[in-house]
Design a protein that fits this description.
By secondary structure, the protein is an all-alpha fold. The protein contains 8 helices and no strands. It is globular, with a radius of gyration of 19 Å. The chain starts with 11 loop residues before the first helix and ends with a helix.
């Protein structure tokens, strides 16, 4: 591998910028896990909503990311397609907003999608290596989400401050394991966003060393 093609480590400031939104979100989940009623009475219900929206965004990430990084397509065309997909996914968010009678789903959607797109827009050149890196992060996000959710359903999760039924924290319109045991959804959210934070913050170029060198040379 030549010096030119050797994967380069991202600068620390860029890794911090990529990890910061996920770190803030993980911190809020941890706060709610320990003191669910100290900040907002409905914080746990709102974070459950965040996890539902994140589930939608994890599935939309390859489409949205692919559009943004398709540098061979005219910018106007990419913006039109991106806007169309964003509006499509906004329909799901609108259902949540009506069900929860709040604008919070819209704000959560904007925050979560910004966290995903910040690493894409921070590299304006979108080399083949960068595109591959984005695809890998989508796979990691999907895996982290599944692992976090399944692990907190199988392994006993500490309750900490979440000792009551979800209805005590404002979860009124849905039912299920996350409502009966709200500590599981909060723990899953914390594990998921903390995993993303650690991966982005401590990312090493060797992690992406298997990227096809032939694709890189085309850049």
């Amino acid at each position: 591998m030549t010096q030119e093609n050797r994967p380069q480590s991202l600068p620390l400031y860029q890794r911090i910028a990529h990890a910061l939104p996920d770190a803030v979100t993980a911190g809020i989940f941890l706060y709610a896990w320990i003191a669910p009623l100290h900040w907002r009475d409905t914080l746990v219900a709102e974070l459950l909503l965040v996890m539902l929206i994140e589930f939608i965004l994890v599935h939309s990430a390859p489409f949205l990311g692919g559009i943004v990084t398709a540098s061979h397509v005219a910018l106007v065309t990419r913006l039109k397609v991106f806007t169309g997909l964003a509006l499509f996914y906004s329909l799901f968010i609108g259902v949540f907003a009506i069900q929860f009678e709040s604008w919070l789903p819209v704000l959560a959607f904007v925050w979560l999608i910004a966290a995903k797109l910040i690493s894409i827009f921070s590299d304006r050149h979108h080399t083949e290596r960068q595109k591959q890196r984005i695809r890998i992060y989508w796979g990691l996000s999907f895996s982290y989400y599944l692992i976090a959710v399944l692990a907190t359903q199988i392994v006993p999760v500490p309750e900490f401050g979440l000792t009551q039924h979800g209805s005590a924290y404002g979860i009124l319109s849905i039912s299920g394991a996350w409502v009966s045991h709200p500590n599981t959804v909060i723990a899953a959210g914390f594990l998921y966003f903390a995993s993303l934070t650690a991966t982005k913050l401590f990312e090493q170029p060797a992690w992406w060393s298997y990227v096809d060198q032939n694709a890189i040379k085309k850049d």
